[in-house]
Every structure is written in structure tokens, then in C-alpha cells.
Structure to design on (168 residues):
């Protein structure tokens, strides 16, 4: 079995550079001192994610992502449902491209599996900060050697970007 599975339910599998996305996921997971285990991404439409939301979470609304956590210690594992319909509408609402928003949502699920929450007071801002760092890391992987790409990257040695003793 592949470590990361990419499935589509009722939609076409998005056109992504999957080997690059997997390398990115591994880098983000490693920045939390964790190991990427079996992950399954299921891309679907709004009707399917609503069905999943109702059945498993008893929520009666659309969402862009539902993450089922099956982590074991440092091993990051789980199933992640992503509604491509909601990704498209969210991209339009926030002024992002579909590809940008899809990448943000892909890593959002991983961040949840790494312990980052977004429902409590102040947590949304923390999640967004981690998303932005992860997206900067992806940009660096896509365009290596560009010094502008490293400013907001997740540093695997220092995932919170807190200053070390040499910087104080």
C-alpha cells in the first residue's frame, strides 16, 4: 500500500504534482518531529462531504475539509476528505486561485493531524500562521534557490520559528 493515497469520489482527481506534494507533506510533518504514516486523501464534491459530515460528525453543513485522525504516537495517519466544490468557492471568496486554496486545504488537514487546532480562541490565527509557513515551504520546494522563498518557511529544527540563542 502506498504511504499516501490520492482518491477521487464523484470528481476528477485534481491536477497536482503529487510527488512534490508528498515531499512537502513529509517536510511539514517532520517539522513537528513526527513521521508521515498512511494517509488517504479523498477528493469529493459538496454532496459527499455533507454526507460524511452528517454521518460521522452529526453536522448538517458543507465544509472544505474533514480530517479523521488515526495518529499513533509520532506516526501521522488519517483520512482526509476535501470538497473540491467548497475549495473553489472559498478560493473565489478569499481572492486566491483554486490551486492556492487547494494546497492550503491539503496542508490544513496535515496540520490538524500534527496537533494544530482552529476552533478555540486564538487558534485560527495560529493555524493560519502554520499554513502560511507550510505554503512558503512548498514555494521553496517548487522554486529552490530563490532567497525570497525562505523567509516564512517551516524550519524542521525550529517549527515555531522562535529565535535561537544566536539570534537573541
Amino acid at each position: 500500500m502506498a504511504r499516501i493515497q490520492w482518491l477521487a469520489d464523484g470528481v476528477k482527481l485534481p491536477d497536482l504534482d503529487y510527488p512534490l506534494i508528498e515531499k512537502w507533506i513529509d517536510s511539514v510533518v517532520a517539522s513537528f518531529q513526527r513521521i508521515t504514516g498512511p494517509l488517504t486523501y479523498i477528493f469529493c464534491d459538496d454532496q459527499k462531504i455533507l454526507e460524511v459530515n452528517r454521518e460521522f460528525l452529526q453536522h448538517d453543513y458543507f465544509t472544505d475539509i474533514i480530517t479523521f485522525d488515526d495518529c499513533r504516537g509520532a506516526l501521522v495517519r488519517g483520512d482526509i476528505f476535501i470538497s473540491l466544490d467548497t475549495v473553489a468557492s472559498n478560493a473565489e471568496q478569499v481572492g486566491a486561485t483554486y490551486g492556492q486554496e487547494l494546497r492550503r486545504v491539503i496542508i490544513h488537514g496535515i496540520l490538524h493531524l500534527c496537533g494544530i487546532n482552529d476552533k478555540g480562541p486564538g487558534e485560527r490565527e495560529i493555524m493560519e500562521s502554520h499554513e502560511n509557513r507550510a505554503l512558503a515551504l512548498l514555494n521553496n520546494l517548487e522554486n529552490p534557490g530563490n532567497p525570497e522563498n525562505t523567509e516564512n518557511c517551516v524550519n524542521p529544527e525550529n517549527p515555531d520559528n522562535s529565535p535561537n540563542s544566536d539570534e537573541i
Notes: The helical segments are 18-31, 46-57, 84-94, 98-113, 123-142. Strands lie at 4-9, 35-44, 65-69, 75-83. The first strand starts at residue 4 and ends at 9.
